[in-house]
Structures are given as C-alpha cells and as structure tokens.
Design goal:
The complex is a heterodimer of chains A (295) and B (364).
Chain A lengths: L1 H32 L4 E2 L2 E2 L22 H32 L5 H13 L6 H12 L19 H25 L3 H10 L3 H12 L1 H17 L2 H6 L10 H4 L12 H31 L7
Antiparallel strand pairs in A: 1-2
Helix pairs in contact in A: 1-11, 2-5, 2-8, 3-5, 5-8, 6-7, 8-11
Chain B lengths: L2 E10 L2 E11 L4 E5 L6 H9 L6 E6 L2 E2 L10 E4 L11 H11 L4 H14 L15 H14 L4 E5 L7 H18 L2 E6 L2 H7 L2 E6 L2 E6 L1 H6 L4 H6 L6 E10 L2 E5 L4 E4 L1 H9 L5 E6 L4 E4 L6 E10 L3 E8 L2 E8 L9 E6 L5 E3 L12
Parallel strand pairs in B: 3-8, 3-9, 6-7, 7-8
Antiparallel strand pairs in B: 1-2, 1-4, 4-5, 9-10, 11-12, 11-14, 12-13, 14-20, 15-19, 16-17, 16-19, 17-18
Helix pairs in contact in B: 2-3, 2-4, 3-4
Classes of the chains: A mainly alpha (295), B alpha+beta (364).
Chain lengths: 295, 364
Amino acid sequence: MLRSKLKPTLAYLVLIVPSTLIILGFLWLLITSFSTRIEGLRSLGWTLHNWRFLWESPFGPQYPSIWLVTLNTLVMSLIMTLIVVVVSSLTGYALSRMKFPGRKGFLSLTLILHAFPSVTLLIPIYFVLLWIAKIPLIGRDVPLLGGFGYNTLGGVALVMVAFQLPFGIWIMKGFFDNISWDMERSALIDGASRFKVWWQIIMPNIKPGIAALSIFSFLTAWNAYLIPLTFTAGRAGKSAVLSLYLQNFISESVMTEWNAVAAVGLFQLVPVVLFFLFTQEALLNIYGGGKKGGV
Amino acid sequence: MKITLEALNKHFGKVKAVDDLDLVVENGELVALLGPSGCGKTTTLLMIAGIYKPSSGRIRFDEQVVNRLLPKERNIGMVFQSYALYPHMSTFDNITYPLKLKKVRRGEMKERAQKAADMMGIGELLDRKPAQLSGGQQQRVALARALVKEPAILLFDEPLSNLDAKLRLRMRGEIKRLQEDLGVTAVYVTHDQVEAMTMASRIAVMNYGVLQTYGAPNQLYDHPDTLFVAGFIGAPPMNFLETRFEERDNGFYLRSQALEIRIPDERGVLAKQNDAPQQVIMGIRPEDITIVAEPEGDFRAEVYLIEPLGREDLVTFRFGDEEIRALAPAPFGGRIGERMFLKLAKEKLHLFNPETEVSSFKER
C-alpha cells in the first residue's frame, strides 16, 4: 500500500522541482518585460516602454520593423515545413513500399546525416548558396522569398530543409510501415489507381504523422538561430528573422536593455506556446510510433 | 467465371514461391488452396487478383488471358485476413468505395450498399467507423465490400483466422451459403484443413510452392496421393509406421518387428504394379483402428496416453519402439499401462514409397 503510493509521489517530486525552476524563469520574463526595473520577481515600476518595438523601430528607420521580421520568420518556417512534409512523405512511402537497388544504403545514409553535426557543414554550404544565388530566376529577386541563394529567406529555408529531411524521412517511413499492405491491395482490387491509393487510402491514415512532422518542423524553423545567422547578411537586412532581431538588443557598444530583450523574447515565444498547447497531442505521436487502436 | 492457371510460376529472387502450377477452377465452384504457411497459396491468390505479376505462365478467366490486366480490370472481390478496412472511412464509405471508383450514381450506390449490408446483417452499422466494430462485424463489412460490386470471382485470404472459434464456425457456414446462393466462383486460401474440407468442392493442397494434389475433400481424405497430403489432411493426423512389404504364400503382408498384417489381395496387386519397394510407410487413420478382444486383434499394445475429445477419446498406444493413436468411443475403459489388442481396418490402409512419398495405391 505504502509502496504503491510512494512511487507516484516520488515521480511528482522529481517533476515538480525542475518544472518550478522553468516556470519561475518564464514568470521573470513576463514581469521584466512590463517593468522599468525589477528586484528578484518584484517590479519596481510598471511600463509599456519595453514593448515599443511593436509600433516603432527602436534602432532607427534603417532597421526593418518587427512585423516584417515576423512575416519573414513565418514565411521561412512555412516554406521549410511544406518542403519537408512533401518530400518526406513521398520519400518515406517509396522507402517503405518499394524495392530498389541502394534502398538499404540510402536508409543508413539518412541516419548518418541525421546524426551529423551541422556546424561542420556551414562553410561549404555558404559556397553552395553563393553559387545558387548566381542562377537566374531562382537565385535572387523572387517576391516574398527573396530567392534560394545566399542572404535570402528561401536559401535559409533550403538549408534547414536539408538538415531536417533525414529526420522527417525516418519518421514518415515509420508511419508508412505501420500501414498494412492488405489495405493497399484491397484498394487496388476495389478499383483505385496507384495514385488514388496513395492519396485516398494511405495519406488519410498517416495524418497524425504529417501533423506531428509539420509541427516539429515549424517549431525548429521558428526557433532556428545558427543557420539564419550564418546565411543572411546580418540582423538588419531584408531577410532578418525573429531570433536575429533579438540580437539587435544585445550589442557591445550600448548597454543592453534587458527588459526590452525580455519583451522581444516573449513576443517570439507566444506563438510557439499557443501552437504547442493546441498540438501537443499530435506532437507526442512522433515518438509514440503512430496510430493506436485502428484510427 | 472459370479460372485456369497454366504452368504458373512466381519467383522472388532465388525463392520459388509458386512452382509450375496448373489448376482449373470451374464456374461457380469454391476451391480451397490448402497448405502450411509459406507454401505459396497466398502468392497464387495475389496473382489471380493481379497484385503480383506471374514470373511465367498464364492465368485465364474463361478464355481471356488476364496476365496483363490490372486488379481493377479483373472484376474480383477479395476478403483479407486482416479485413483491410479503411479505418478513416465509415462502414458505408468502406462498402461503397468500389462503387465510388466506378462512378456509380449516388442513389444506386446507396441502394446496393444497403442491400449488401443487409445481406451480411450489418444494415444498422453503416455510419460507424471500423474501430467501433467487433472483429466479426469488421469481417462482415469486408465481405459486403467485396460483394457490392457484384464480382465474377471472390477471393478469400484466410478470412476467418482472426475470429474466435465459435464465430469462425458460424462465418464458415455463412460464407459457403452465400457463395452457393450467388453462384460466384471462389478461391479460398486457408491453412486450416477443417475449413477446406467443410467449405470447398475441391481442395488444392500445396507445399513448397508445388501443387501436391487436387481433388474433392473425400477423395483427398480417403485416397491421399502423397505422404504430405495424408499427413496434412485429417485431425487427429494419420499414423505412419515403417514396415516391410512382402509377397508370399499367394498373399501380401506388411511386417515390422511388432506386427504382421495381411492386406487385401487386390490392394497388394495394385501396390506391386506401382513398384512398391520392400521398405514402405504404412498409414492408418486413428478412426480406422479398433480395440478388440484377443482373437481378432492384429497386435498387442500398451496404453500410453488418453486424451478425451468429448464424443471420443484419443488413445495413444505403444508397442515396441512405435507409437500409434486410435480413436475409441468415450468413455474409454482402459487404464494407462494396460495392454490391449488393436485391429486395423485393412481396406483403409495406405502405403507410401519412402523415396518418392507417392502412394503405392495410386490408380494410374
């Protein structure tokens, strides 16, 4: 009796301690962003001054507005998510269902790439993007994206896609593997074409996988820092994203305004938290191995 | 529709899944493909369905060669062991999926789906999802989906294996009845010989991709052509004993250390014509052995194990180094260790050549 009660109590204890620390951190962030100065968690005066970046550019007119930067981040994240999901689900299907030479090699290669430290590739990728920038039409001056070369949103998205794909392909292959061959055969016999089978029968049944991968990719892109930093011409440029914008506030020449940093950080965080609250069930699927109990 | 398989082969790499198969399924007939797992029966079925392409050989529906036809062009319905229902669709959508793909009018679609569902007794479940149905109900939905397009051929891939014993018995009867009522040609894959015996008009027994024998259930049971068929069909299985086949004093005898049996003359002649070797394998079914009083018995054996089956008791006897199992009317009076006399029904004996495994009683 005592034993059975002890176990959950212990589990709660183990969870409560780190959770409290994290919650305190967020609380500090929230209070700081609305205060002139704070002492511990106590505000020494409330203000909206830290949030003025929402309606004016704090560094002068040559810097892009927060709304353009947010749009940039959104575009980059959506582009990356879209490509990752489309390519992963097609590749995953092929790897799960078809026999072709090099299939095993391809699978182990993706796994190796997944484990590869991306930092080591930054310099070669820089040259690749410079080269892409010289290609007419897709290199530069594409509306919204800027293009797929160096210092464009598309280019950054492309690099992130490359780093995300191995993970995505493995996840999607796992979901396809869970779908019985009989279901496909049955649909073929019922009169569906190969494409209709994929679209009407297979895809609806891996919706949880697609949802999970989309969310995961979107969050990765939204929070990315290193790759946007490396492959755009700096935080003030046309193609700046939120994580870089935040860096404007932390410079060597002027004293850092930590209250404003907190406000911008919170601004970047809010969509993610909201998103996570509504989608965490789908997100858990990615490690749960897909569907349970038939649907 | 008549199905003809001619010299059909299917290789997966080096593995011969189906080896030179010839088979004819007559119009309106239910044929069972029977064999242990991995014997090529499902591969054969999937070739008939058009999912697998034959490596060589021909498949004909009536006179038309269908090798190159896609599954959807073959007008077949198929029921899978896993039911293969589409989990994201309601029962109604599952059943009407084949009709939707054929672009049948909505009104007609509804009518036909309702008819198929009513026939299977699932008329009230049309708006449920597969996950909300029991195994038996899912099986019925799968059947309704196979029937709704009024196929010329029905294919079954171990459809009852996932059901519990009682339900299996019931569905067995229903499927047979349905197939006979509709008069549709059917091929039924199973590893359960009772299922094959009870449902099929003819059984094709397969092993290692090779067709062992093809015939009516009683034919296979009473006159098995090969050792494999003799051992595979029938439960409890046939007893096999190694004996010597001898001809002397104008009679034919089977002899081993512990027994000597004279077999009917015409059978002995047949075996001799078939070049039965000196060493043969004798087979006898448990129900063809009776326990008798001393004078008429063929040999003595000791009761080793008694397994009550309800109506009968399965008794294992030991004699010498050999074991033999007999069915005795329940309740069996004997005790373990008791010595009793056994009599074999001589006209029900089988002889097999141990080299070729072919029956020495096979009519030429």
